Amino acid sequence: MTDTTHETTTAKPAPMPPSVESVTVNNETKLRCKDVDVFYGSTQAIKQVSIDIQDKAVTAFIGPSGCGKSTFLRCLNRMNDTIEICNVTGTIELDGGDIYDEDVDPVQLRARVGMVFQKPNPFPKSIYENVSYGPKIHGLAGSKAELDSIVEKSLRRAALWDEVKDRLDQPGTGLSGGQQQRLCIARAVATAPEVLLMDEPCSALDPIATAQVEELIDELRQSYSVVIVTHSMQQAARVSQKTAFFHLGLMLEYDDTGKIFTAPSHEKTQQYITGRFG
Amino acid sequence: MTDVIDFTELSAKHTSQATKRRLRARHWAEVRLKAYGILAIGLAGAALLLLVSTIVTKTTNVVYEYTLALETKIEVSDRDMERINDPNPNIRASLRRPIQDALTDAVPGEVGRRESRQLTSLVSNDAGLFLGDIVKADPSVIGQTIAFDALLDDNLQLYLKGSMGRPDNIGGLGQLISTPGDEEGTYDLEFEWSSFGELFDAIRGQRRFDAGRARAEQRRQQNAVDVTEERILDAATDEERARLQAQLESFRARRDQAEQRADALMRLATVIGEEGLRYQLTEADVSFLIKAGETWFKVTEIERGSATAVIYAPSDETGPWAEGTWNGYLLDRPESTRLVSDRQAVWMEIFEDRGAIGQVLNTRLLNNSDSASAELAGIWGAVVGSFWTMVVTFLLAFPLGVMASIYLEEFAPKNRVTDLIEVNINNLAAVPSIVFGLLGLAIFVSGVPVHLFGYDFTIGGFLPRSSPLAGGAVLALMTLPTIIIAGRASIRAVPPSIRDAALGLGASRLQTATHHVLPLAMPGILTGSIIGMAQALGETAPLLLVGMNSFIQEPPGDPLSPGNVLPTLIYQWNSNSERLFDDKTAAAISVLLVFLIIMNALAVLLRKRFERRW
User: Fold this and answer.
1) What is the reported pLDDT for A16?
2) What is the pLDDT of residues B46-64, one digit of tens each?
3) Whole-number Å distance between alpha carbons of A189 and A182
4) Which among A82, A121, A191 has CB closest to B506?
5) Which of A154, B117, B437, B509 is paired with B309 by a 20 to 30 Å CA distance?
6) Are the C-beta atoms of A87 and A171 separated by less than 8 Å?
7) pLDDT digits (tens, 9 = 90+) for B73-99
8) Which has the closest alpha carbon to B318: B301, B295, B342, B302?
9) How far from B349 is each of B121, B149, B289, CA to CA, in Å?
């Protein structure tokens, strides 16, 4: 399985503009979540969320602050395991296998479900080391040349290669905010994941960097199932094909992005996207 | 809420007189606080300055050491010859005889049996060994006369530095005439009667000082008398009364004796220097020497215009000496209370006039190990001991501390047990170091005997006493909390986003910790460790308990051989009665301070260099 994903990662992405057709074409389910509850101690943060996330599409989670969308996102690669008091129930299946099953190693899972965080968080190491770290610990590269090509392709995929190819040995923390975030995306891509989770990836970036990252997300859609949490409804409308609206731990609505933004079926969604609360 | 506050009225209050007064009071309070702050800093600075200047002044006393140039004819006895010919460099010959002869030749006049002892004690006990080393290195000098710089004894070292009081030239008026006296070896001196007002003052001063001490003794005995009298009144039995009566008599007798002595001394003090009174100078008086040409007299009796004297250093001249060619020298402490006798003082003056006293840089202080003779003692053994101890401490405390802090921060579940551990580690840092010493002594050195189920066995007790290994283990116990606290603080300072990034990529917790968290926290951990080590380097109390204050004359070759460390050496030297050790103590403290400053500077440098802001 690692081999096939490896192939997809290293294949040159064919730039394709987002269109309604592409959404309808790739409608196989990548992640199937059923009756997911998340508790922080005795507080319930997520209540009975069931959602099917499609492969080769961008799914956006929107909703007001504290509605649990980030918490839910972190369930998808078991990042919540690192929080001791956090307790997840229900089932989340990746390609039909329960990721909370006892014999699933979260370390292996996170290699398959990559994550990009709100604040760009490159390691205080060189750009090369940042990108090569994932492939190294997962043993994806057999030789130095292979590793080099993984790094190059990941950086190309993150549209960063041309900017950094001459200074791969310089610290990743020396890049600009937008470049750092794209470096983090390249780092996530380098482990050849199948799903890419993005937690407000543009909230710390200026509009130009935001546009670059959005463009990138759109390209990544060709190869991955991308889940993005965002506060910006314009962003959700621009980059996603499917949108889920969260409110007070509940997922109130999940549908095609076009439908959510033009004809939401839920009153709260309507109020939120028109800016009446949130 | 019926009261309605008018805010316009409130605003008007800002410009009222009361507000101005309050403002002034506030400003004044600020000025006062600043002044207190400056005062506190000033006091702290002054204390530091005082400390450093005291240590530095005392240290400068031992930067140089004094030697005496002796023309030594090398003659070697058969027994010493054997030792010199022995190929083993540890077998040394002590050639004291040639030095003794050279000293006798170097001073003018005959040297009697009693003087001979004083003469020998001018040079260090080990001077003979050093001469033996020279001969062993080059046996061809046997039979020849060589120039040998003999190290002076510790008392003379101090004397030459002036910290014991040198002879004070008080001059001399008119002509000095010397005629042989009635007794064998004495001389009658005549000089202008107005000479030596200072001398008489000094003698008077000494008498008054002694009289004051006699008066104090009188008061003490009076007190004892009073107390005993009361106890006689309270006594229950006749026997006890009789016993106390006897005590009372003895106290009274001593009181009267002291009173008489004080009165006599005071009388003497008022009449000294009066016409026709001849005063005998005893060992309890100031010493008075006269240097006439090359001849040194020691005055034994004195009155206005004349004196009786003995010769300490004869010459061919017999006088009379004209004004300007003779001078009186006053040593204003009684000879009996001095470590350098009058005769030795005269010899030192003669040697200095001759230019035989040399001053060399005191490398011995750094290169030698401890010694019973103050002039030979050095810190090298303790430096080596400190080095081994620190190596052991670091090797034990650093890995343990780092592992403990990484476990507690990154892996341990947050529950009551870890809370308890955390509180205890923090408390451990505040435990007095001597307690660690006791623990180390019991566990590492002595071992704890256990009687259990009919079996007798000992827990611990596997480290040799006095060894840097035992000392280092004890210090490691003491340093561990410091390292753990610093380690945890710097691990906690690594932002969670780095951990998220690594975990999000599929790194395990161990990989996250070792690949990312630890390297980023390392400068902070090292800084904390260096500060902990610096603390350990200056620690004395726990090491005293494991026996690292032994008298050890050789640096330890490995962590298992007995050794001592700088702070315990300082402790030992400081409690030594020989006065040169005082200055050597200051020198050892200076060296310790230099090490501590270097370590702290390293910590600051590390922090500045690798400090990372997130």
Assistant:
1) 45
2) 999 999 999 999 898 888 9
3) 10
4) A191
5) B117
6) no
7) 888 888 888 888 888 888 888 888 889
8) B295
9) 16, 17, 12
The Cα–Cα gap between A39 and A89 comes to 9
- Partner B contacted by A184 (CB < 8 A): yes
Question: How far apart (Å, rounded) are the C-alpha atoms in residues B548 and B532?
Answer: 20
Residues of B in CB contact (< 8 Å) with A are 413-414, 495, 497-508, 511, 515-516, 520, 612
What does the alpha-carbon distance between residue B149 and residue B182 come to, in Å, rounded to a whole number?
A: 42
Q: Quick one: pLDDT at residue A3?
A: 42
CA distances from B588 to B382, B530, B566 (A): 10, 21, 7
Please list, in sequence order, all residues whose beta carbon lies within 8 angstroms of the beta carbon of residue A153, skipping any fewer than 6 positions away.
Answer: A9, A10, A12
Query: Taken in order B582, B586, B592, B595, is the CA torsion positive or negative?
Result: negative
The pTM (predicted TM-score) of the whole model is 0.79
Look at residue B48 in the predicted model and tell me its pLDDT.
95
Select, from the ranges B92-106, B208-222, B233-247, B378-392, the one with the highest average predicted confidence (pLDDT). Answer: B378-392
Nearest CB partner across the interface for A110, out of B413, B495, B503: B503
Residues 6+ apart with CB under 8 A from A34: A50, A90, A91, A92, A93
Distance CA B341, CA B344 (A): 5
What phi and psi, each to the nearest 5 degrees, are found at residue A58? -100, 125
**If 0-12 CB within 10 Å is exposed, 13-18 middle and 19+ buried, where does residue B258 land?**
buried
Interchain CB contacts (distance < 8 Å): A and B:
62
With the C-alpha atoms ordered A189, A191, A196, A201, is the resulting torsion angle positive or negative?
negative
- Residues of chain A positioned with their CB less than 8 A from the CB of B415: none
CA-nearest residue to A191 within chain B is B505
Within an 8 Å CB–CB cutoff, is residue A123 touching chain B?
yes
Asked whether the beta carbons of residue A124 and residue B505 sit closer than 8 angstroms, the reply is no
**Contact between residue A38 and residue A18 where contact means Cβ atoms under 8 Å apart:** no
Please check whether residue B178 is in contact with residue B300, taking contact to mean a CB–CB distance below 8 angstroms: no
Radius of gyration (C-alpha) of chain A in whole angstroms: 18
Rg of the Cα atoms in chain B: 36
| Cα–Cα distance measured from residue A92 to residue A52, given in angstroms and rounded to the nearest whole number | 9
How far A42 CA sits from the closest chain B CA (Å)?
17
Identify whether the C-beta of residue B570 lies closer than 8 Å to the C-beta of residue B588: yes
A75 contacts chain B (CB < 8 A):
no
Q: CA angle, corner B590, sides to B588 and B591, nearest 5? A: 65
Helix, strand counts (H, E) of chain B: 21, 13
Q: How many CA atoms lie within 13 A of B467 on its CB side?
A: 17
For residue B382, which of B535, B538, B534, B545 has the smallest C-alpha distance?
B538
* pLDDT of A275 higher than 60: yes
Q: Give residue for tokens 């000094």.
A: B202
**Which of B505, B517, B520 to mutate to probe the A interface, most A CBs <10 Å?**
B505
Give residue for tokens 């003995």. B310
Alpha carbon distance B343, B283 (integer Å): 13
Cβ(B448)–Cβ(B525) under 8 Å? no
Structure-model confidence comparison of residues B215 and B91, the more confident one: B215
Local structure of residue B286 (DSSP, 8 states) = P
User: For B332-413, where are the alpha helices, taking DSSP H only?
Assistant: 342-354, 364-367, 380-406
Structure tokens at B384: 């080596």
- Partner residue facing A119 (CB), from B413, B497, B506: B497
Torsion of CA B7, B12, B14, B19, to 10 degrees: -120
Lookup result for tokens 């004195």: B302
> What pLDDT was estimated at residue B1?
52
Between B201 and B499, the higher pLDDT residue: B499
Q: So what's the pLDDT on residue B610?
A: 81
What H or E segment, with its residue span, contains residue B211? helix B197-234
Helix B468-493 and helix B380-406: axis angle, to 10°?
40
